[in-house]
Structure to design on (67 residues):
């Protein structure tokens, strides 16, 4: 099960790096099915977290933009 308890404490870069680590593991050294499913679940949660943060940043930039 993904550990999202410290999601607020992680930087975007840390979250993205963890996601990249998961992808590398699944591609290069596939774990057992159960471990792969857990890793995939964590990866989806991390990807969603990254997307949320990017949307928030885009909104902030949009609010600051001068038309």
């Amino acid at each position: 099960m993904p550990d999202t308890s410290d999601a607020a404490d992680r930087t975007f870069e840390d979250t993205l790096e963890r996601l990249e680590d998961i992808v590398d593991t699944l591609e290069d050294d596939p774990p057992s099915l159960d471990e792969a499913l857990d890793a995939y679940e964590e990866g989806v949660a991390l990807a969603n977290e990254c997307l949320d943060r990017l949307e928030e940043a885009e909104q902030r930039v949009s609010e600051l933009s001068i038309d």
